[in-house]
Amino acid sequence: NEAVGRLFAKLEVPVLRRTHPDPRWGDMQQLRIAARNAGMDIPEEPTRHDLQRLLDAVKGKPQSRAVSYAVLRTLTKATYAPAMVGHYALASRHYVHFTSPIRRFPDLTAHRALDAFLDRTDNGQDVPKKFGGLGRKVRADERCPKIDVLEDLGDHCSETEDNAEAAERSLREFLILQLLSEKFMGAELDASVAGVSTTAVAVAVQPFLVEGWIGLDNLPEPEGRPDRWSSDPALGRAWAPRSGWMLAVGDPVRVRVESVDLSSRTLTVSIVSTPRTGAPPKPKSDFGSNRPLGGKQYGKSTKRGERRRQSRRRR
């Protein structure tokens, strides 16, 4: 794939390339949340090496899956185009899909262009040292489309690829939910916290990698006492202020399959247990009031406490 890409770059012959632009740094909020909850931090504009170090650092940790998926979601979508922008994920300057012409049309276009090159060079045996004249001859061959034609082909192939992947995801999700509804109703399964919103927590059920949502009102009451869960999506965390229990993106949990709706393709689960406890994080000012939430641990005075302090002062 890379050798073919480099060849046509030297010939200055446009071909349909597999392009993967650099990530958009403004889209890394979810990755920062996942990394922070795993005890890691990343630079403002991380390099490939920074992302690899992050993945290596969380390997074997409960948050590893959440961080890995956050990295994947951060990356831009690879597409087909004649532009020589390189392939970020593979750290390759020139990358052409070439190895599967029987199932991918972009590969077939590369094979046709290579046929034109081989015909002009006696099957590669008579390649001149300077590619200028050879490049012009190959570009003139009808098997090598012009850039505007390649751009249209690239857009079409990228669109059909997206449609195929969407259909595959949809079918896989349906079959997984069907399996859960038939074989796993009421079963307890391992899962991990996949996301936190202002009203709910999402969990990824393993090993099926399907997500279910749990409303904050339906989260367990720690220690059997009434407790009202709060959340901060900017931190990727939900917590119960009275007990100090906390759920963060990447945390492992144990869930029970409660119901499956195949028509809407929704999964409802409940959390059975979670190993994570601790003092709740302080919400950011842009996600609610800075006023303490109440209770001794937040510094709120009570009338009884104030009377006791006044009594001690008199003594």
Question: Please, could you describe this protein's structure?
Answer:
The protein is α+β, with helices and mostly antiparallel strands. It has two domains: 2-22 and 76-161, no CATH class; 184-298, OB fold (Dihydrolipoamide Acetyltransferase, E2P) (Beta Barrel), CATH 2.40.50. The chain contains eight helices and ten strands. The protein has helices at residues 2-11, 29-37, 48-58, 64-74, 105-120, 132-140, 147-183, 303-314, and strands at 17-19, 79-81, 188-196, 200-205, 210-215, 230-232, 237-240, 245-248, 252-261, 266-273. Strands 5-4-3-9-10 form a five-stranded antiparallel β-sheet. The chain has a three-stranded antiparallel β-sheet with strand order 6-7-8, with no helix packed on it. The chain starts with a helix and ends with a helix. 27% of the residues are buried. Residues 278-306 and 311-315 have low confidence and may be disordered.
